[in-house]
Amino acid sequence: MQDVNTHPVFQALQKIIHQAAAAIMEIYQSADLGIEQKSDDSPVTAADLAAHKVIITGLQALTPNIPVLSEEGSVSLEERLSWSTLWIVDPLDGTKEFIKRNGEFSINIALVDQGKPILGMVYLPTTAEGYFGVTQAWQDLPLGAIKWHDGPERAVSYESINVRAPREPIIVMTSRSHGPALPMELKQTLKDFYQQVRELPKGSSIKGCRIAEGIADLHLRRGPTSEWDTAAQQAIIEAAGGMLVTPEGKPFLYNQRETLLNGHFFVAGDEIAPHIMRWYETTDEHKKS
């Protein structure tokens, strides 16, 4: 079977995401980030818009018949609900981290078919790390997940990735800008099984990707996210043998509702997931979702 990194679709997506990263970093390294407030009071920068333009142009050239839903785009509800296959894009996931200049932001590109994310690519511009996962056959792409790292002069290293079996200390990825941290009751539940639990705050889709590559174990998100925040990482996490699911254990489906907002979710492997679901059912958390 052809290696995924030599597949023309992967190479085309990698080129698009590299170009978007270059556009972002040019602005990131400038004095003026071009910060504005959107109608929902969330920030947007010149980098969000520049990356959006690059990605839209690239995806339209790669797949002219597949529409694109981007955080920085505009499409009517009626139109997007008619799409059975679509790209879902966050040109700059972690805008607040970008504004803080802490480097913890990413670019997310996902292909969704019949509500399911079947392909995902996430790239971290400041560290030159990329993740790619395929969960369902499309364009003869091999299934599975990989990580790559761009070295000097574009020398690239690739490796297959998988979620890990839990080991102590349990590493819990928490949100840098969107608390709260891990609930104390859940932390104690995990300690009953694993004794040591360490919380590690990060921004954007980095949290899910760290779990997919097997260097962390759990991320619990309580609070609003949007479909473009989770689609790409869900494909990568599932391709790596993990799950991104509701606290009841149901995977997210995409472009199936009027709203694009997600509910609570967690990212984990098979062994930790039952602890999260039991904790959720025995607390008042389910009343808040």
Quickly count the helices.
8
Distance between the termini: 43 Å
Mean pLDDT: 92
CATH topology of the largest domain: Fructose-1,6-Bisphosphatase, Chain A, domain 1
Can you characterise this structure?
- The protein is of the alpha+beta class and 289 residues long.
- The chain folds into 2 domains: 4-160, Fructose-1,6-Bisphosphatase, Chain A, domain 1; 170-287, D-Maltodextrin-Binding Protein, domain 2, CATH 3.40.190.80.
- Helix content is 31%, strand content 27%.
- Strands 3-4-5-6-7-8-9 form a 7-stranded mixed beta sheet, sandwiched between helices. It has a 5-stranded mixed beta sheet with strand order 11-10-12-16-14. A two-stranded antiparallel sheet has the order 1-2.
- α1 (8-28) packs antiparallel against α2 and α6 packs parallel to α7 (227-239).
Summarize this structure as a short list of keywords or feature phrases:
Fructose-1,6-Bisphosphatase, Chain A, domain 1, 7-stranded mixed sheet, 5-stranded mixed sheet, 289 residues
What's this model, at a glance?
The protein is built from eight helices and 16 strands.
Q: What's the topology here?
A:
Blueprint: H1 8-28, E1 36-37, E2 43-44, H2 46-62, E3 68-70, H3 77-81, E4 85-93, H4 95-100, E5 106-113, E6 116-124, E7 129-134, E8 144-150, E9 156-160, E10 170-175, H5 184-194, E11 197-202, H6 206-212, E12 218-221, E13 225-226, H7 227-239, E14 243-245, E15 261-262, E16 265-268, H8 273-281
Parallel strand pairs: 3-4, 10-11, 10-12
Antiparallel strand pairs: 1-2, 4-5, 5-6, 6-7, 7-8, 8-9, 12-16, 13-15, 14-16
Helix pairs in contact: 1-2, 6-7
